[in-house]
Design brief:
The complex is a heterodimer.
Chain A (H helix, E strand, L loop, with lengths): L2 H32 L1
Chain B lengths: L6 H11 L2 H19 L2 H30 L8 H35 L4 H29 L22 H10 L3 H27 L8 H5 L2 H21 L2 H4 L2 H22 L1 H4 L9 H22 L9
Helix pairs in contact in B: 1-3, 2-3, 2-5, 3-4, 3-11, 4-5, 6-9, 7-9, 7-13, 11-13
The chains are: A mainly alpha, B mainly alpha.
Chain lengths: ~35, ~325
Amino acid sequence: MPLPLTVAIVAFVVMVIVGVLGYVIDSNEEKHERR
Amino acid sequence: MHDIATPGDIAHVHLLINHFPTIGTILGLLLLVLSFARKNEHLRKVSFEVFFLIALATIPVYESGVAAAEQFKTQPALQPAILLHQDVALQSFILMEITGFLSWLALWRMRRIGRPTKGLTGAILLFSVLTVAVVSLAANLGGDIHHPEILTSEYSSPVAPTAFVLISATTIQKFVLQNRWVWPACETLHFLGMSLMFGVLMIVNLRLLNFMKAIPFAAVHRLLPFGILGYGVNFFTGMLFFIGESGQYTENVAFHYKMILMMLAGVNYLILTVYTGAWELPAGADAPALGKLLGASALLLSIGVMYFGRMLPFIGNAF
């Protein structure tokens, strides 16, 4: 696999994980604030 | 640019600050246990603040340790003790940073809903106990480097220290340097993490500087976890750079300035998370003078961190 493509895939996957983690923290927060 | 520290100075810095993680985590853990015994939420909050600050202080402890180790490269007899100390210190460093992240999350949640969840508190308790155990071992092994008198069998541990090493600095270094995609991928992620962190810092701190006054501070405060996640990406990739090519950083003046500003920015972030004066700011209200100072200093410190990061090859000797 060409290097630029590998780099792009790795960066994309890591940032998706970060986004999901942020979403989980935020939605959990919203759930607690509603109570 | 005039360097603020020679490699020898940094070795001294390591000797001065290497007790912070051990004593700090023990203190934090004692406060946490005391908060359970007294059912005192305020004490619990203080223990989380201690864990966060110690996690921050552990970064220069680890990095100055690597710089100190470089001073002994010409003494092969000391290498086994140094490498073992460094590897166990790396495990305790990872545990400490996880404890610091969880503590920050608990503080953020306490600010918003008044209490952390039981799961989060339990996780902090577990990780802080593990950190105390491993950091104490790392400190003990550090003592072995310059105190050969305690290396007799009478004082030796019944458990081999290598049992605590799940990942060694050498393994990480090989991973970073032997795979061509790792360094550019980390550079890309370092920029993405920086953009995420600085974007959040801009929104939150500009509100303190009376921009977007229609928004209450509590609304922008909710974005802070995204900022700390951006910081997490940069911390992780930054550590891969540091472990991969430590010589580029330990003797680099721009890196020394970057680290100092990063420590101050970390303290600033903690105050931003828990500061009541800002939290109570409704829509349309002006931030108090302290809030404005906090907002302005956060932005200036972050710009300083980015500036010295970018100038690593130009002011210093990186790459």
